[in-house]
């Protein structure tokens, strides 16, 4: 094989390798985007052993109380609504029973915890719900 053919062969091989590497990175990026977890499941709020089930409804997620150790808690009461994907987490509304109002909320999953940050003006509070197994 002449030197010219060897150089051409090396250039073609290098080009093919670059394409393979580029396609591999592209596929890994797509898989990473689709690997986003879902808030669907049952979450323990940490208060009175109250559990909220998050489910999909009409293109967004909602969360309703499914059980509680507090007899005054209304089973079926919706605490989360209009939850939609936003970047690496979700945004929606959280109901504050003590205030009787809905607040804007940002939800992020960290392991088996759901971190819910509720903001009202300059103040914000983050609460943690733990995913129930099963």
Question: Strand arrangement, largest sheet?
Answer: 1-2-3-4-5-6-7-8
Helical residue percent band:
10-25%
Low confidence ranges = none
Q: What structural class is derived from the secondary structure elements?
A: alpha+beta
Average pLDDT across residues?
Answer: 84
Do you know the CATH architecture of the largest domain? Answer: Beta Barrel
C-alpha termini separation: 65 Å
Would you mind describing this structure in some detail?
- This protein has 134 residues and is of the alpha+beta class.
- It folds into two domains: 1-35; 41-131, Lipocalin (Beta Barrel), CATH 2.40.128.
- The chain has one helix and eight strands, in the order αββββββββ.
Q: Would you kindly provide a brief summary of this structure?
A:
The protein is of the alpha+beta class.
Task: Provide keyphrases for this structure.
single chain; 134 residues; alpha+beta; Lipocalin; 2 domains; 8-stranded antiparallel β-barrel; 1 helix; 8 strands
SSE inventory with pairings:
Elements: H1 3-34, E1 41-44, E2 51-57, E3 60-67, E4 78-86, E5 89-96, E6 101-110, E7 113-120, E8 123-131
Antiparallel strand pairs: 1-2, 1-8, 2-3, 3-4, 4-5, 5-6, 6-7, 7-8
